[in-house]
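REQUEST ID: PR-0412
SUBMITTED BY: lab tech R.K.
PRIORITY: routine
TASK: structure prediction, single protein chain
INPUT:
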Amino acid sequence: MCVRSIGSKISSVITFIISVLFLTSHVDAARIFALFPWPAYSHQVLNHQLSMGLAKRGHELTVFTTNPMNLHIPNYTEHSLSHIYPIVRTNLNYIDRGKEGLVHHFKSFVKVTEMMADTVYSNTDLKDYVSPNSTKKFDLVIIASVYVDSLYYISHLLNAPLIVTVTTPGFAFNYFEIGNPTVPACFPDVNLGYSDHMDFRQRLENLLHIIRQWYDYHYVSGPAHGRVLRKHFGDVPSIEDVRRRISMMFLNTHPHLHYPRPMPPNILQIGGLRMGLMNKTLPEEIKSILDDAKQGFIYFSLGSSVNSSQLRSEILENIIGAFSELPYLIVWKFDSDLPLHQPSNVLIWKWIPQHGVLAHPNIKLFIYQGGLQSTEEAIECGVPLLGIPIILDQYFNMEALKRKGIAESLDLYTMTKGEIKDKIYKVISNPKYKENMEKLGTILRDRPRHPLDEAIWWSEYVIRHKGAPYFQSPRLPWYQHHMIDIYALFIVGLLVLCYLLWKAIQFIIIRPQTHVGSIHKKVLTNSLKWEKVKNS
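STATUS: complete
OUTPUT:
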């Protein structure tokens, strides 16, 4: 017994040592090229957290981003792509598009991403890195994915493996990129606000929606980004070959945030990557005001992609009317002066340090658009939610959060003043929402390693092995992917079997009956003839 105990202890020590060596294994300082082209602050901060984490490990980072941090770190070089912002702001009005769903405006959305990619490749700083005469070498390329597949060609130009980051849950096109089955019977697409328990109509709509995305992915987005590559580089590989350069995908989701689903080994779920790493400090002016909110306060923000000033006047009137009748202080992130009468309990700020506000002990509720980065901040701070989803993954996020008992939601386009007040009181007055939120935060933090550490480890893994081709799922033609050819074989075989069975029935049953009838007819005819002769 004693020997067994000593052996167990020795085994535990050896396991611990191996684990430490495994977790602390690293590569020599590598050169990493990162490109984050989507102009939205909330999407940039996740990618910045990853790039900063890699820089702290000693790697040399070259980062093209729409939101430079300007931190002047020796091994961190930034290039601004802020000139992409006007492209999106001019061509995409999320509030107008959100009412119908982005899928109905997909061609215009792809046109925006085509313009973005063209702008990136036209950037003079970028040309210094990717031109044939460049002497700059890189060990890894990291690119944020949002229908900008032509930018993956940078991995080919730099001759370095590619990791793609996704700051939202995985859309169908992300799974097309990486070769992960979509399985529309079980897993709703992010564009649809459905749960993983779909009824027949929802499963049918989900299937049709994914088929539509598949078509757009191959025959709308693919040709558009193929044009970008031919414009800048002439004769290039097909866009399908460019997509196959992806070694791994870092997906901003987690089974506790959304729904469990099978993932291939080249997808790493990094949901919660920023948790525990965000700055909670507040400017003294804001802190003093929130400290004085003895009855508590409500924080309202539509995120960094949607401006509150774009809301129609009738929507603003309903929101302001509801806020004016509440006993709480309302802190509203509003990008301009409020166009209507501002109630005395409503404070307007154009920019607010969100995580610090959510971490304040006097907060009662967070009203927001359902964005994933804001959701993670609220989970870390244990703040219940009231969502007003507008576009993309926001409906999907809110449905998942409602099923977890931590949120309620409103329809931006139909909500009334009374509905807004009722939902606010419902969430604030029921302690279950906050209790469930705190429980979810505890579960989400209970992981073997912090998601940032895991993302860094796998980034270094791809560097060490110069890619991860053995993790790749097969990219099959659509009819093989969904086994249409197998089903067709079964159907044709069944039809042939039915045909042969019918012929057998004819031969065994119908033909003898016909033959007997023919004999009977001949006998009857001969009998009549004989009778006729006899009578004559």
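NOTES: The chain is about 50% helix and 10% strand.
REVIEWED BY: pending
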